[in-house]
Amino acid sequence: MKSLAIISIIGLALAIILGFTRNANVGIISIGIAFIISQFYGISANEIISGFNTSLFLTMLGVTYLFSIVNSNDTLTITAKKIVKSVGKKTWLLPIVLFIMGFFMSFIGPGAIPCLAIMPIIAVPIALQSGFNPIMLSIIGIKGAQAARMSPITPEGILVHQLLAEQGILDAVNPVFISMFLMASINAIVAFIVYKGWKPKKSIEVEEETLPKFNSSQIISIVGLLTMMVCALFFKMNVGLVAFTIGSILVILGVVEDSKAIKAVPWNVLLLVTGVGILMEIILQSGGIDIIISALSSVMSEKTSAPIMVLVSGIMSFFSSGLGVVFPTLIPTVSGITANVGGISNAIELASMVVIGGTFTGISPISTAGALIMAAISSNEEATKLYPNNKIFTELFGWAFLYLIVDALVTFTGIFNFIATTF
C-alpha cells in the first residue's frame, strides 16, 4: 500500500504540473491518472467512482446554477452600479465600496470564483474615471470577495467544512471565516498603501448615468436569492437542493432561458474539484495523507507549523486551484499534523492557513484572479495605453510574492491561533 500511496501522490503532482503547463483541467487529468493507477494495482472501477463526491457536486452545481441565472439577467451588475453611483463625489469611499461590494456578492452564495470575473470589470472603469490605479481597485474588490469566501453557503466554504467534518472537526465555521476576513482586509489595506490610494491622480467627475430600474425578472431574482439565504442560514436546509428548487422556479417564471443558465455554469470548476477528489480518494485509502503529514510534520515545530502551512499552500496556489487542488490536498492533513506536532498547534488554525495561503497568492497572473485582472484591463483601450500587459504581468507576480510574505509574517504573530481557540 505504501508504494500505491507514493505513486498516487506523484500522480497528483503530475496532474497539477500537466494542468499548468498544458493549460488543461487538472480534475480531468486526475481522473485519467486514477484510472491508469487502478490498472496496475487492481483497483476496481467501482472503487474509483466512489471517490466522486456526489453530495458536493450537487451542492456546487445547484449554487452555481442559481447564480448563473442571476448573472444572466444582469441583476448583480445593476445592483453593483447602483451602489457605486450612490458614492457620488466622495472618491475616498470607492475602495471601501468595492471591498464591501465584493464581500457581499461573494457572501450570499456564489463564493469568490464568480466574483473574480465581476469585480475587475466593475473596478477598471471606475478607476479610470476617478484617478485610482485600476490594479489597486481590482485587487481591493477581489480581496472583498475573498474575505467572504468561507461563508458557510459558498462552494468553497461547503468544501472546506466538509473536509474538516470528515476529521471530526465541526466547530470551524466562525474561526475560519474570521481568519479569512482579517487576512483579506490586511491584504486590501497593503494594496491601498502601496498605491497611495489616498491620493488619486485626478478628482472624480461623476457622469450622470441613468441606471435602469430593476425589471420584474430582476426583482424576482433578488427575492429568490434572499429566499435561498434564509433557507440555508436560518432553516439549515441543504443549500444545493434549495438553489436547484429556486433556480427551477425562476426558469419556469421566465426569468432567463434554461439553456443560457446551464451554459453559464462553470463546469470546468465542478470537474476540477470532483476530478481531483477521485484521485484524492486513492491517496486517502492508500495512506498517502499519512506520508504528507509525516513530511510536513518533520519540518514543523509548535511555532512554525502555521507559517509553514501558509507558505506551502501559497506556493501550491501559484500553479493550481485553491478550491480544486490545494484545499482537498492539505485540509485532510491538519488533524494529523496537529497530533504529531502538538503544543500550541491547532487543527482549525492550520485549516485557516491552508485557506489563506491557497487563496491570496492566486493574484499572480498565471492564476485565476490575476489573469482576470489582466483581461479586464487589457479589454479597456484607455487602460491598455496607461498600463501595458508586461507591466501588469510583472506587478501581479510581485503582489503574489508580497502577499505570501505578508501572510506568513502575520501568521507568526499568533493571531490566527487566538481566533481558532476563541471563536
How is this structure best described in words?
The protein is mostly helical and 423 residues long. Helices cover 75% and strands 0% of the residues. The chain is built from 23 helices and no strands. Helix 1 (2-21) packs antiparallel against helix 2 (26-41) and helix 7 runs parallel beside helix 20 (368-378). The protein is globular, with a radius of gyration of 21 Å. It comes from Anaerosphaera aminiphila DSM 21120. Residues 5-147 form the Dicarboxylate carrier MatC N-terminal domain. It holds the Pfam family MatC_N. Keywords: Membrane, Transmembrane, Transmembrane helix.
Domain module tally: 2
Order of helices and strands: HHHHHHHHHHHHHHHHHHHHHHH
Helix content: over 70%
Distance between the termini: 39 Å
- The rough form would be described as globular
User: Major sheet: size, sense and barrel closure?
Assistant: none
Average predicted confidence as pLDDT: 87
Features:
423 residues, mainly alpha, 75% helix, 0% strand
Write the layout of secondary structure elements.
Layout: H1 2-21, H2 26-41, H3 45-49, H4 54-72, H5 75-85, H6 94-107, H7 112-130, H8 134-147, H9 155-165, H10 173-194, H11 216-233, H12 239-252, H13 258-264, H14 267-286, H15 288-298, H16 305-319, H17 322-330, H18 334-341, H19 347-360, H20 368-378, H21 381-386, H22 389-412, H23 415-422
Helix pairs in contact: 1-2, 1-14, 2-14, 4-12, 4-13, 4-14, 5-6, 6-7, 6-8, 7-8, 7-20, 8-10, 10-19, 10-23, 11-12, 14-17, 15-18, 16-19, 16-22, 17-19, 18-19, 19-22, 19-23, 20-22
InterPro entries: MatC_N
Keywords: Membrane, Transmembrane, Transmembrane helix
Domain Dicarboxylate carrier MatC N-terminal: 5-147
